[in-house]
Amino acid sequence: MAKEIDLLSDYGEQICDALGFNPTSNSTKPLSVANGLFRLCLEAVYDVKDIHEWIVSERRISQRILSSDEIRNKYKDILTYGTEESIEEIKEARFFLEQIFNPDSTVFPSYSDSVLNISSRWLVRDRLRSEAKIGDFLYDILNTELDGKKSAAIELLNEALKDDEDDISRLIKPILTSTYKARISNIEPNIITIHMNKSKLAIRKGFDTLASNLKYTGQTENTLLVLQKMINYAMFATYFYLIDVNSSEFGVTRIPLLLDSSGDLDAIVRASEQCFIAGKKSVEAYIVNTLETLIQSESVIADTNDIEQCKSFLRDMPLKSANENNNAREALLRYFDTFSSSSEAPLHALAHALQFAIYTFTYPNNTPSDFCRVLGTRAGLVGPGGNATKYKRLLINRFLLETIVMSTVNMEEMPDGIELRELGEAMREQYCILIGTDTDKDYSLLEEAKIAQDAPEDLRGELASNARGIADMLISLGLAKRYADGVTIIGWRL
Predict the structure, then answer these.
(1) DSSP letter at 434?
(2) Whose CB among 101, 143, 166, 438 lies 3.0–4.6 Å from 117's, allowing a Cys bridge?
(3) Neighbours of 156 (CB within 10 A)
(4) Is 183 within a domain?
């Protein structure tokens, strides 16, 4: 049967291609991203079906799951007492393995959808739908040569993954009953030339600086920590790109990311909430702008300033029968009428209507806003947690704050440290992150983004208090020291 032509789906795919990954599902978790990035860095995948069999305990009701009695019979050769091994001890072992290798609820009865906690290369498997191609997107950035060099992060990840002497990897070694070589399937990454816009360059700089700092501080001795920090940064980087790409590609004002240090400053809380909302709107605006570009490049409408020609395009555009049955065309025309009556230019109203329809009919279980919220939450940037919280903001956790700082300033180049003000300047330049270190500059950026106007009047004064809160967090992390004169210096083990 011939595939039905559906322009909504086609535009949805082109948006994902332009972005570099697929913001179409809320199922993407850090381990999914890790699996995709690690697979490409290693240029190999590994068979982990037997490990999966052990980890999915029989507490779950599914015909796919082996009972502990079946496990005993199948893996008798690696058990101390073979078929005489205690069933209760096998059950207990499986329970603890599941706690360790399924911390993020990414292991399911179905092997095809499961990804395990990755402590070394032996747990990196083939491609998963939940990866959303984010690993591919990040790998392309790392693999692009700048000044004749690929990112040092690739080599660092390879070294960490190939070291399987960590405590977690040791737990599964008895299960690796087949030869190591039999588990490995080499792959060749699809090397492509990518356009390195300002946002991608910021991410690349972040990975390079983080890799350098992990080596300089000696943290590479802890391979699990290396993997954790790299994926923590990968999640943040993807969120940042979603927020920033509209500025990079279409030249609009950057969205400031005001980090709330405590939740005790009302004006900061309000402004940070507005930054989060502005970020979500920026993603939607990017999609609309991309659709405008696609429509213009295809020359499918003679005059995109003509309302009737735009409506004629919607009446005639090919849709699959399922969308026709769901009244997608009527909805498209209704959306267009709404947006065009709101003084939007016809082409913009058309692109806006298509964007709305794509996330109603093609990707009905997700929106760009949802993807931003989920990604930011899992990165440790967006909070408070829980679905009951109505208003989210950029409430950064300590681990991510450390990761971002280590991606921003090269500590090897500043053995005596830098002032908190200089750190704020670097974060502002690289990510448009604001912490309050320069009240005038930070307030001006919030004002330009039309955020300061909606915050309480004491926002300017609270910015300095927020900077002190960030400084306190950095001091507690061992990344800063406050001297008697009140100056806070950022550095490693000052």
Answers:
(1) E
(2) 101
(3) 22
(4) no
